[in-house]
Amino acid sequence: MAEVGKGVNAGKLASNVQKRLTRAQEKGVRGGLGGGCDEFGISFQTLPGYIHTFLEKSTADTAFIKPSREKARVMQKLGKADETKDTAFEEQVANFNKQLMCVSAAMHECSKRLHDCLAEMYDPEWFGKEEVDSIAEDTDLLWQDFHEKLTDNALLSMDTYLGQFPDIKGRIAKRERKLVDFDSARHHFASVQKGKKKDEAKIAKAEEDLGRAQKVFEEINYDLQEELPTLWNSRVGFYVNTFRSVAGLEEKFHRDMGKINQNLSDIMTKLEEQRLAK
């Protein structure tokens, strides 16, 4: 990172920062982010939304003086400034988990009660009594296995993917804070330079503070510009792996369940044949 040299003015500094941000954004576009956020922004207000907001702000004129952090927080609490909420995606994930696990558990319970009812009303002298009891046990074990594999293969991978979000969101928030610090230092440096009485010591100190704030902001800004497009594009692989895993588990489960149900059907057919033969 280039240090701020003596004699640099605020306008030139802002211009240099603007050029760096523009180049970083162009690199992000080439990395695949492009306008993808606009396609999905109507329903994603979480990390993709953060990415969308971040890239928009990166191209803004950094000469614009940001409000202080305290003022921004007050404005948000008063409802006079928007505040990004990261709830929509978590809610959708919670719904997905709930649908998978609750539906699986409910169907398992229904299946168990059905076989309990069959076992209770099935007379001991009827054909296939032992086989019917064995089928009930096999069905229960099959449901348990499906439930466990669903948790291991689908939901845990989702938890791993979501585990990236807190760190990235924290760094995005830090980037916003450092941008406020950078703007504040730039504004102070410009004010000191324009003062009626030139105080070289104050100017030098303000210039040093500005260079430090610029360096900190540019470093975190550069890192995020590198990482966010990759994270955004990784959602495709996540969706593919998650739903392919769920589909594979369900396909195997229903195939094995079909064999068990076929055995039960064959027993019922033989029981009916014995009844008619009497």
UniProtKB/TrEMBL annotation:
It comes from the Eukaryota. Signal peptide: none annotated. Keywords: Coiled coil, Cytoplasm, Membrane, SH3 domain. Its main location: cytoplasm. InterPro entries: AH/BAR_dom_sf, Amphiphysin, BAR_dom. GO terms for molecular function: phospholipid binding; tau protein binding. Residues 74-278 form the BAR domain. It is found in: Cytoplasm; Endomembrane system. The keyword DNA repair does not apply. Coiled coil: none annotated. One of its GO terms (cellular component) is synaptic vesicle. Pfam families: BAR. PANTHER family: AMPHIPHYSIN (PTHR46514), BRIDGING INTEGRATOR 1B (PTHR46514:SF7). This is BAR domain-containing protein.
